[in-house]
Amino acid sequence: MPPYHPKNFFLALGTLLFSYGGHSAFPTIQHDMKSPAEFTKSVVLAFGIMGLMYGPVCVMGYLTYHDAIRDSIIPSIQTIWIQQACNILITIHCILTLTIVLNPLNQEVEDLFNCPHHFGWQRVLIRSGIMLAVVFVAETIPSFGPLLDLFGSFLTNLMMIFND
User: Fold this and answer.
1) What residue stretches are annotated with the Amino acid transporter transmembrane domain (predicted)?
2) Cα separations (Å) of 10 from 13, 138, 146, 153, 156?
3) N or C: which end of the chain has fewer CB within 10 A?
4) Beta carbons of 155 and 21 less than 8 angstroms apart
5) Model confidence over 126-154: pLDDT tens digits?
């Protein structure tokens, strides 16, 4: 077992909380459900499925590579085609997730600039600018992953509180 460092504990906690951080979307999801009384069941089921997906990957990665694991386990995989398949699947996941995650920000900025609510050059320009800003921040800040996990672990909950 690797030596314990408080910094590593809090980074791991931040990563875990970020992966389960859908709280800001829960009120909308419950409101849109056919039967809102079933919300608790759906949340328990969703978190259970996420735990079943994340848990074995973490345990098997640790049992296989022990304390040699770093931020990403992909470079430790010896078979190149499996590495490439993982990279492709993660890329697809990130592209599809960004569409959902950035949508509230896109809509707020569009409202700020009085952009029409139909497809047009203004929306394309605003959304492209936001995407370029996201890419710029992600590429220019060193060790962006742990910073994102740290902020995501506690700022995601604030989105639920300060939502209009």
Assistant:
1) 7-159
2) 5, 21, 10, 10, 16
3) C
4) no
5) 999 999 998 898 889 887 777 777 776 66
The whole-angstrom separation of Cα 23 and Cα 161 is: 10
Tell me which residue of 46, 49, 54, 68 sits closest to 1, measured CA to CA. Answer: 68
The residue whose two tokens read 């690797």 is 2
Specify if 1 maps to a domain: no
Exposure class string for 69-92: b at 16+ Cβ within 10 A, else e = eeeebeeebeeeeeeeeeeeeeee
Is 71 within 8 Å of 145 (Cβ atoms)? yes
Q: Quote the domain boundaries for residue 31.
A: 6-161
What integer pLDDT is reported at residue 94 of this predicted model? 82
* C-alpha span between 154 and 120 (Å, rounded): 35
Instruction: Evaluate whether 153 touches 18 at the Cβ level (below 8 Å).
Output: yes
Q: Is residue 85 part of a domain?
A: yes
**Which of helix, strand or coil describes residue 22?**
coil
